[in-house]
Design brief:
Layout (H helix, E strand, L loop, with lengths): L13 H11 L4 E2 L11 H12 L12 H14 L5 E5 L1 H13 L5 E6 L3 H9 L3 E6 L8 H5 L6 E7 L11 H14 L2 E5 L15 H4 L3 E6 L12 E5 L1 H12 L7 H10 L5 H18 L13 E2 L8 H10 L2 E2 L1 E2 L10 E4 L4 H14 L1
Parallel strand pairs: 1-10, 3-4, 3-5, 5-6, 6-7
Antiparallel strand pairs: 2-8, 7-8, 9-12, 11-12
Helix pairs in contact: 2-10, 3-10, 4-5, 4-9, 11-13
Length: about 375
């Protein structure tokens, strides 16, 4: 066998399968894509282009250019997030991979609230670790009894993603403080994926785990808030000992990160995206109000996803029927140990949302 044993439990992403199907269709109603439907704001594009023309196109320092790291540090300090060191990564997924390489030994367990971003499970499996899922259904809250029974002597860390992909849930401070109490009692790390922290609809900002617990590794980036998905730019902030090891690992994996995108990102953190976020709050309301009569659905408070339970409780079968009607959504089983829900992205033009809602309600 030529393929390594570590790939035995790894399968292609169900999200990518839906993307591939959508690309084959003519004018699909695509509500599956996990990226903003607006382009990178013009001033930020122009900043990147200017640095390309200036010749800033070569390798950069492994940990990121100093001016961006300083800007990120200032940004996090204003938010009250605990950290000792900052590095720039190839997107949040690149940062998560480095953290998994640095922290997980074979047999280690990692607790993940379910539903969850699909990358967490498979990166843990790649390292020989064991993902352990803490159920958050039906209201997508973090419950102490669920977490406490999943903790063992093999638990290495806990992953928190808020606002959450795929549910759009923003975990309230009391839920996060419960997780902190459990982590502190056992001296565990918490990894906090804050990539959607710009997308908060019903309050000025969401509470961040890094504000509440000093042993947090915070992951953030520019893909969602500033639509830089293709520029692959993220950051990690946390305890110096761990981040320094991640920088060493980056030398031997990604080497360095996109040069001109780092220059543009120094401007992005000062670029106000409130108008974009207000547009997504309005889209959230369109989708929630449009689905709530036919679906059992929680109103998302952040990100740009909604995660309704489908009538009949078979998400995969419902997605097949939706695809037959030219609507592309993702089965909840991609993001969960349950197959009862579907993920809908409302990062789409209004006309697509209204048409998609009409068809999904008809199928229901």
């Amino acid at each position: 066998m030529l393929i390594s044993e570590r790939l035995a439990n790894i399968k292609p992403s169900g999200v990518r399968r839906i993307f591939d199907l959508a690309r084959q269709m003519k004018d699909p109603i695509n509500l599956s894509i996990g990226e903003p439907d607006f382009d990178i704001p013009e001033p930020l594009k122009e900043e990147g282009i200017a640095w390309i023309r200036k010749g800033f196109n070569k390798y950069t320092p492994t940990q990121g250019i100093p001016e961006l790291r300083e800007k990120i540090a200032d940004h996090l300090k204003k938010k009250g997030i605990h950290f000792e060191e900052v590095m720039v990564t190839a997107g949040v997924t690149g940062g998560l991979l480095l953290a998994s390489l640095a922290l997980i030994n074979p047999g280690d367990e990692v607790i993940i609230p379910d539903p969850f971003f699909v990358m967490y499970e498979y990166q843990i499996l790649l390292m020989g670790g064991t993902p352990v899922f803490a159920d958050t259904y039906p209201d997508f809250r973090l419950r102490e009894e669920e977490f406490a029974k999943k903790l063992t002597r093999r638990t290495k860390f806990i992953i928190i993603n808020s606002p959450n992909n795929p549910t759009g849930a923003v975990y309230p401070k009391e839920d996060l403080m419960m997780v902190v109490r459990l982590a502190r009692k056992r001296d565990l790390l918490i990894l906090s994926d804050d990539i959607y922290d710009n997308f908060v609809f019903d309050e000025p900002a969401c509470p961040c785990m890094g504000q509440l617990y000093e042993k947090t590794i915070t992951f953030g980036g520019f893909s969602k808030g500033w639509a830089m998905t293709g520029w692959r730019l993220g950051y990690v902030a946390g305890p110096r000992e761990i981040v320094q090891q991640m920088i060493t690992l980056q030398q031997y994996t990604f080497s360095s990160v996109n040069s001109f995108a780092q220059k543009a990102a120094t401007k992005a953190l000062d670029f106000n995206v409130d108008d974009y976020i207000e547009g997504y709050r309005r889209k959230r309301d369109i989708v929630y109000e449009g689905l709530k009569e036919k679906f059992n659905v929680q109103k998302p408070r952040g990100a740009f996803y909604i995660f309704p339970e489908v009538p009949g409780g078979n998400g995969e079968a419902f997605v097949e029927r939706a695809i037959q009607n030219n609507v592309f959504v993702v089965p909840g089983s991609v993001f969960s140990k349950r197959n009862t829900n579907i993920r809908i992205s409302f990062a789409a033009p209004d006309e697509k949302l209204f048409k998609g809602i009409e068809i999904l309600n008809r199928i229901a």
